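INFO batch 0412 | record 1 of 1 | parsing
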Amino acid sequence: MKSGGSSAAGPDPSAGSAVGAVTPRVLLAAVPVVTLGMLSFVPSLVVAARRRRAFDWLVCAGFAAANAAWVAWAVLTPAQTRGAEFAVDLLLMLVTTLGAAAYALFAGPGRRAAGALAAGAE
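INFO prediction complete | emitting tokens
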């Protein structure tokens, strides 16, 4: 007699590895969201350090520049902002927060990592 959803061989080991592979990416994507964009360069820095590709370093530099622009803009604008000043502040915050989180989530593994994952799956 079979029980609910378990098999005689035990739990599927690939299910745990899929969760283990996604969890660091989700935690890395949470960094800019939790810090409201102040550490937006961290996920792209980690991705660039892992992949060692010029494009990833360029993305990291872009997020660092956007972060620096946002900090400079926040220092130079008064506490009460309206209109264009508010729009620029909001745009910089959204780019540094949501853009960095999306990049961390959807930047797939690099060529080396994809090859290692495929070799491990066999």
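INFO post-check: The helical segments are 13-34, 41-51, 54-76, 83-106, 111-121.
INFO record closed
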